[in-house]
Amino acid sequence: MSVIKISTGSPFEKQAGYSRAIKDGDWVHVAGTTGYDYTVMEMPEDVAAQAEKCFQTIAAALEEAGSSLNDVVRARYYITDPSFADDVFRVTGKYFGEVRPAATMVVAGLIKPEMKIEIEVTARIGAGSAA
């Protein structure tokens, strides 16, 4: 079984030596994703807008791997301030309210000051269709 590396074209991927996602059989591991709009390399100011952008980038990587947000079985959220939790929950609920993956939220420092959230997920292709 081959491993497929998926890239968004972000300059960070090459610079730091990682793939946005790795497809290994039915599993898709999506790297920690921040709210950058990689087409213009801008970061929204608002944490909810950053979370929305994270989900857009993650969804595109999953789609390229033949998967979707519905297949996500594990999510990890890293926020830089505990006061962001409610704003982030509104966004995660929008995308995962029915999917309900196992999830963890951690308050942590991120590598650039403009980053307020980072999201990492694991999906299993076909999990979204399981009863």
From TrEMBL:
Enumerate the CDD domains for this protein: YjgF_YER057c_UK114_like_6 (cd06154)
Q: Which InterPro entries match?
A: RutC-like_sf, YjgF/YER057c/UK114
Give the originating organism. Answer: Maritalea porphyrae
Q: What is this protein called?
A: RidA family protein
Q: Which PANTHER family match?
A: BLR7761 PROTEIN, YJGH FAMILY PROTEIN
Pfam families referenced in this protein's UniProt entry, alphabetically: Ribonuc_L-PSP (PF01042)
